[in-house]
């Protein structure tokens, strides 16, 4: 089909979910739980203000060609982890400028954890996280997009990798997080790399996911 909506009055559960056809596939006032595999293929899966829960702890259970998961406000993509391998969060947005800006999360222990990610395709200032309020060790904070990354279960630290396109986004060398002191904090030493045709920065052994906003500077 074309644009299709998952809706209803109770939590929706899928064993496996594959997106096909054309248009956007979206949640409407309801969360969705996927037991095993999520095949995005070339479609956008819009959680909107809701959450897509992928229950399987396998690292390769989410696949895509050019598809991604988008969300607004506190919505996002949630994954359970149970290893020290890298877990892929294929997040993006078609609001305004279309962007695929994924996140990789590599837990530092094989304990049970759950992480939730949203790529916010908006100026963080417009969502309540003023980019002008920052430590003086940083230049401009990315005005085009930022991330909400939360650990909703578990206590393991993790390596967090954020991705960007140097050609269209600019070149970044710092990762920053909004702090309870109401300013953006420089997270210190990061490792530069690349994947998915994008540049990336990795902050190793990070264990603070409250508040949830992260950005590039």
Summarize the structure.
This protein is mostly beta strands.
Keywords:
nine-stranded mixed sheet; single chain; 2% helix; five-stranded antiparallel sheet; mainly beta; 217 residues
How does this structure look, described?
This protein is mainly beta and 217 residues long. Helices cover 2% and strands 44% of the residues. It has one helix and 23 strands. Strands 2-5-8-11-16-17-23-19-20 form a nine-stranded mixed β-sheet, with no helix packed on it. A five-stranded antiparallel β-sheet has the order 12-15-18-22-21, with no helix packed on it. It has a four-stranded parallel β-sheet with strand order 1-4-7-10, with no helix packed on it. 41% of the residues are buried. The model has no long low-confidence stretch (mean pLDDT 97).
Query: What's the helical proportion of residues?
Result: under 10%
Q: Distance between termini?
A: 41 Å
* Mean pLDDT reading: 97
**Large-scale geometry:** globular
How many β-strand stretches? 23
Tell me the Rg in angstroms: 17 Å
Main sheet record = 9 strands, mixed
Strand arrangement in the largest pleated sheet? 2-5-8-11-16-17-23-19-20
Structural class: mainly beta
Q: Report the sheet-strand fraction.
A: 35-45%
Low-pLDDT windows of residues:
none
Counted by DSSP, the helix tally is: 1
Query: Would you list the SSEs in sequence order as H and E?
Result: EEEEEEEEEEEEEEEEEEHEEEEE
